[in-house]
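Researcher: I'd like a candidate sequence for this fold, 709 residues long. If you have to choose between options at a position, lean toward the conservative one.
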């Protein structure tokens, strides 16, 4: 009997041939027929079974590929998706998940959940077994990816944290107040560098480079911080203390900046002194740096018997630190207490302890060079700011600071950079005290700066002198403006007379201003203010049409314009300004703003331009609108007992501008043909000419339609 297989839910019927559903004969004619039919059925069934098994295997393989493709797509989504992908989780977010799980556990759970969902959709056990085997490998590689991401982010997080802590320590070092805070911040910097050595795997040479770079940046920021606060000597001390651990190019740049600031401050102070004398506020004796005399050799600062140069300028094995270091000066061995003298004349700019230098004196010389005397036991009678001459006693040999025995460490600096003392000459004349008269001209002051200051201080001195000159000129201009405003007001109140002006006040004016006052008085008396007004009416009407601009002017500003627009108009602007400011303060719409709006409305109604495209005729017409609307507002206020509203003023203005009303106005012109206003002077002249003709004469030209009442 043929066994009928079950294939994926498809079962061959009992009365049918396997696979082809052919009916099985129920009645057999003979044994041969039965045998033939049985063989045929068996052969057909075997072929069909084989075919179906092959189809099932292919279906299983296809389902396996489809399910694995779906799982791989989800794996890619878990990696790269903008919202879901783990690669978007960086730093702390990749290491500390909100639910307390690790990133590995969190994303493995998501992967497993999706694997189970896909597995549940498979149709048979063969598909599930094949899928499970492949999914296990994919899951293993996915976990390796997540683990690698976590390791990368852990390293990145550690580096960022260390860098942040290093920056914090460096900032604390920059703003440290006092040695204790400074040393604490420096210790934190070094600790973070050691931690970063472990993170990055630096060798000791790399660590030393990083330490030098970090100290250079930190000390540089601290120097900038101190300079910005005017603590120049503290900035010097920072470089003295940490300079050997910094990049030397940066040290030289920082010293140069300190010296430039010092030069600027010194030059500005001298410029201010000269400015006071120049403008009659000072004078007397002023200390100056001296002119750049003929260059000469410096004297040896220690000249006692038995003294010797024990260490020259240049690289050497440091006697204390036992490593090669740059020796920035020369050492002069001498008995303790031996005299130390100034190598050249100059000004003492430092006296006191200076890091490893110990007790130190620094002197600035006439040509900007500096000398430094270190490890001193004590000082002679000199002070910071005092001037010393070449060979003058300044102190005594000692062994203070970082020192192995009594000696003088002697340095010479040019533009802040230490140089070999044996190669240096210095300017001769120095240490002058110059007597300055109480009154100097600018030319004399500038000449003194050029001859009495070193080159590197002159620019700052000239800036200070010119700045003071500008301040004086501005103050004088403001005072003169106030004086002129008071004189103008006095003239106007006295009907154009100069009798009310004190003679001393007139005498304070220069001839040009006196002439201007006289002309104004004449104009006032002769009624010529309208002529001046014609030149400045644009300014006047601009303030009338834009009350916000009027509010920005001071009373003195307006009175000062009385010379140009006439006293009455200046008073009108003052009244308008007061009215505008009062209305604004009370939360009301200012009347002047209403009038300007109505004038603009009427101008638009009659096609008169008021913007940048306005012609001179348009501007002239608009001025007349402003005048008439202002007068109309006064009339309405008198009749209403209050300020008219915008609507009331517009209605009254339109009524006034009707043809009948216009013919009754003394300043308005009406074109009967064009039904519009004509307000320019040219039009007035033409109509006046027509009106001078006989009233009975009929003109044949187009001008006859213009008339004036």
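Model: Candidate sequence:
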């Amino acid at each position: 009997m043929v066994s009928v297989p079950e294939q994926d839910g498809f079962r061959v019927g009992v009365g049918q041939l396997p696979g082809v559903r052919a009916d099985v004969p129920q009645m057999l004619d003979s044994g041969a027929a039965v045998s033939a039919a049985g063989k045929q059925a068996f052969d057909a069934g075997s072929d069909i079974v084989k075919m179906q098994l092959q189809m099932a295997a292919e279906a299983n393989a296809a389902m396996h590929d489809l399910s694995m493709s779906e799982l791989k797509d989800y794996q890619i989504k878990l990696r790269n998706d903008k919202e879901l992908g783990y690669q978007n989780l960086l730093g702390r977010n990749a290491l500390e998940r909100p639910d307390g799980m690790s990133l590995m556990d969190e994303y493995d759970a998501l992967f497993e959940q999706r694997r189970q969902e896909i597995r549940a959709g498979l149709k048979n056990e063969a598909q599930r077994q094949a899928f499970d085997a492949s999914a296990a490998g994919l899951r293993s590689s996915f976990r390796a990816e997540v683990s690698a991401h976590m390791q990368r982010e852990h390293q990145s997080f550690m580096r960022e944290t260390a860098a942040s802590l290093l920056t914090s320590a460096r900032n604390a070092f920059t703003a440290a107040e006092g040695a204790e805070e400074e040393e604490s911040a420096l210790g934190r910097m070094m600790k973070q560098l050691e931690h970063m050595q472990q993170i990055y795997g630096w060798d000791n040479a790399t660590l030393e480079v990083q330490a030098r770079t970090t100290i250079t940046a930190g000390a540089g920021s601290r120097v900038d911080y101190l300079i910005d606060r005017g603590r120049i000597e503290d900035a010097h001390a920072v470089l003295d203390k940490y300079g050997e651990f910094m990049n030397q190019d940066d040290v030289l740049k920082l010293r140069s900046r300190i010296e430039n600031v010092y030069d600027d401050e010194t030059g500005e102070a001298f410029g201010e002194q000269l400015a006071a004398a120049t403008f009659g506020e000072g004078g007397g004796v002023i200390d100056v740096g001296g002119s750049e005399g003929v260059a000469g050799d410096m004297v040896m600062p220690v000249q006692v018997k038995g003294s010797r140069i024990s260490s020259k300028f240049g690289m050497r094995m440091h006697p204390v630190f036992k490593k090669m270091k740059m020796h920035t000066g020369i050492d002069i061995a001498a008995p303790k207490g031996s005299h130390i003298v100034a190598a050249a004349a100059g000004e003492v700019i430092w006296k006191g302890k200076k890091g490893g230098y110990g007790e130190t004196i620094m002197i600035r010389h006439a040509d900007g060079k500096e000398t430094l005397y270190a490890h001193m036991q004590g000082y002679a009678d000199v002070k910071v700011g005092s001037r010393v001459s070449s060979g003058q006693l300044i102190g005594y040999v000692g062994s203070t600071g970082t020192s192995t025995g009594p000696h003088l460490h002697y340095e010479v600096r040019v533009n802040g950079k230490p140089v070999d003392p044996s190669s240096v000459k210095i300017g001769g004349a120095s240490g002058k005290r110059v007597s300055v008269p109480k009154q100097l001209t600018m030319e004399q002051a500038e000449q003194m700066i050029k001859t009495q200051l070193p080159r590197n201080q002159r620019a700052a001195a000239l800036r200070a002198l010119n700045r003071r000159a500008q301040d004086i000129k501005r103050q004088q201009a403001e005072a003169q403006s106030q004086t002129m405003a008071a004189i103008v007001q006095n003239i106007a109140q006295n009907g154009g007379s100069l009798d009310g002006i004190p003679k001393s006040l007139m005498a304070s004016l220069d001839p040009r201003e006196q002439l201007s006052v006289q002309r104004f008085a004449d104009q006032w008396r002769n009624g010529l203010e309208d002529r001046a007004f014609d030149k400045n009416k644009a300014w006047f009407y601009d303030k009338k049409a834009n009350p916000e601009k009027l509010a920005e002017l001071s009373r003195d500003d307006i009175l000062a314009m009385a010379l140009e627009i006439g006293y009455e108009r200046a008073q009108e602007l003052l009244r308008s300004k007061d009215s505008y400011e009062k209305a604004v303060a009370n939360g009301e719409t200012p009347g002047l703003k209403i009038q300007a709006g109505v004038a603009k409305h009427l101008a638009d109604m009659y096609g008169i331009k008021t913007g940048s495209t306005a012609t001179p005729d348009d501007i002239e017409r608009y001025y007349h609108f402003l005048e008439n609307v202002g007068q109309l507002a006064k009339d309405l206020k008198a009749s209403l007992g209050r300020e008219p509203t915008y609507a009331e003023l517009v209605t009254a203005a339109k009524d006034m501008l009707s043809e009948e009303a216009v013919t009754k106005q003394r300043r308005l012109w009406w074109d009967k043909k064009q039904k519009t206003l004509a307000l320019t002077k040219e039009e007035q002249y033409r109509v006046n000419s027509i009106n001078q003709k006989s009233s009975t004469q009929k003109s044949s030209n187009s001008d006859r339609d213009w008339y004036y009442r």
